[in-house]
Structures are given as C-alpha cells and as structure tokens.
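ARCHIVE RECORD
Type: protein–small molecule complex
Small molecule: zinc ion
Source of inputs: curated submission
Record status: active
Notes field left blank by submitter.
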Amino acid sequence: MENALKAMEKKMTDKNKKLHVKTGDRVIVTAGKSKGTIGNVKKAIPSEGKVIVEGANMVTKAQKPQPMAGIQGGLIKLEAPLDASKVMIVCPACEKPTRIKHEIVDGKKVRVCKKCGEQLDV
Ligand SMILES: [Zn+2]
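STRUCTURE (tokenized, with ligand):
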C-alpha cells in the first residue's frame, strides 16, 4: 500500500504543478468540514493540488498491527489530503489569512503578505 502510493506520487510529480503553499506554512482551512481549522502544512502534494494540514480533515482508518514496526492495530486518526484551494496562508506577522505576492529581494524570490507586506520566508 505504502509503496504503491509512493510510486503513484512519483509518477504524478512529473507534472510539477505549483502550489501557493508549501510544507511548514501556517494555513487556515476556508471550506469543507474542517473550515476554520488553523494548522501547519504537513505535506504539500503539488501533483494533486492537495495539501495535508495538521489537525484538519481528520479521517479514521483501520490500522493493521505491524509488530515488526512496533505499530499496534486499531483505529487511528490521520489527516487526509485536502484541496489546496481550500486553504489560505495565515501570515505570521499580522496573523490574518492572506494572499501572497512574489517579490524579488536581493535576487531571491520571496513570498510577501499582501496585507502587511511582511516577508513570509525568513
Ligand atoms: Zn501579514
């Protein structure tokens, strides 16, 4: 299962679409059952246009026991990927959900909060 997923992910990464969020960004969910949830992006999946956000879009899955890996069986909760269009970046400076713009600073492309002008990648 895990390997199959990885293979699929690899194949789809070739498309190389870009997301407005990346791993580690703080975002707020703006639609769906987790609307209003704020969390960090655990994983961005650009090939699918999806992101996994900490604590958002939780699903319960049955985990098979894997004694070799020290994993107990039972029901586990984990975050399912959600559409990247359903999240907005929360600016660390003004703490508001915001759109970002790109600016070139010292020859480097940085993301800047449209509301307060603060750089997001520092
Ligand atoms: Zn801001």
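CURATOR ANNOTATION: The helical segments are 2-13.
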